[in-house]
Amino acid sequence: MRNRDRKIFGVFLAITLILATGVTLSARSTSKENKGAMEITKEEFGHTPDGRTVNLYTLKNANGMTVKITNYGGIVTELMVPDGSGRLGDIVLGFDNLKEYLAGDPYFGALIGRYGNRIAKGKFTLDGKAYSLATNNNGNHLHGGIKGYDKVVWSASEVRSPEGVGLKLNYLSKDGEEGYPGNLNITVVYLLTPMNELKIDYAATADRPTPVNLTHHSYFNLAGAGKGTILDHEVMLNADAYTVVDASLIPTGEIRKVSGTPFDFTKPKTIGAEISKVEGGYDHNFVLTRKAYGLQMAARVYDPTSARLMEVWTTEPGLQFYTGNFLDGSIKGKCGLVYPKNGGFCLEAQHYPDSPNHPEFPSTILNPGATYRQQTVYRFDIKK
Ligand code: BGC
Fold first, then answer.
1. I need a labelling partner for 127 at 20 to 30 A (CA). Which of 78, 146, 156, 175 fits?
2. Domain limits at 70?
3. What is the number of structural domains in the chain?
4. Which residues are 140's β-sheet partners?
């Protein structure tokens, strides 16, 4: 080989080697099987006014997907997922510190209970006895009352399993809390898997019959929290009906077909396409189309600007689709970013609102000896 040819060959070899190493490295760092790279770390997040220490846990998988969860309210404070070009972005609304969560907010990222959504006037009758719950929303009971599970300190332990890394939260909700009958012992496990899924497993037992309807209340913006509205996101809901509500968002009892209405998301359409036809915006329980029990896909959301895709899978019969209608730009969130009206959407897998007053809805009553269970999975990907 002549000198010049040798040089050209050398450069060619070097480029090939660099490219090959790059491909191997990136294959390794995006390998969904690389469980070794899953991590969980813990740091102090702050103190409650009564002096209890609250921690912040960071779950990370081999793809770099990161979830931060605090044991105050079981709140997901940050969710970093890759966009179409592999860049990680935080896609949930929230705050940078505990102080701001303590000051109150519209349930950003929180665990909700004992009853997700509304119970009319906070009243229901169970086994012939009338109960009165705390009212906190236009005379109705919303998301567990004045001090729901979003505002309590959960005991926490780290989970390392073949399925992923996670956080196990436990809370004992005492008999009479916010007016509910019976002690309720609740365990919630958040698990981050190598498949870019955030799995939430709920379990609860009670020593007296009580309504239970637990859910998770993250506000998502797949373009990035604080990056405008979600009106251009495309949504598909696997629901052929919804529960009709009155002006105070209490179900009338009617279950109406979505076909021919702005509630028809059976084929993907943007959130903004028909939102103006729905007074106040979407804040409705969708009745999931089910052929069997078990985990089933309930929703798929796509943001064209980032190419991020989110699927929601659940064992629940309903899905509250809330488009952040009450956000008004007055809340300054993480990094000082402002959350405008429709700046995030929630997909809360749960039983129907006000079920204790609607015997025709699937029952939410948990009896002693039985175990309440629900599983919901938020699965992230990009559109290729
Ligand atoms: C409800 C809304 C409520 C919001 C509070 C949603 O789950 O459906 O009506 O305003 O939570 O942030």
1. 146
2. 3-382
3. 1
4. 137
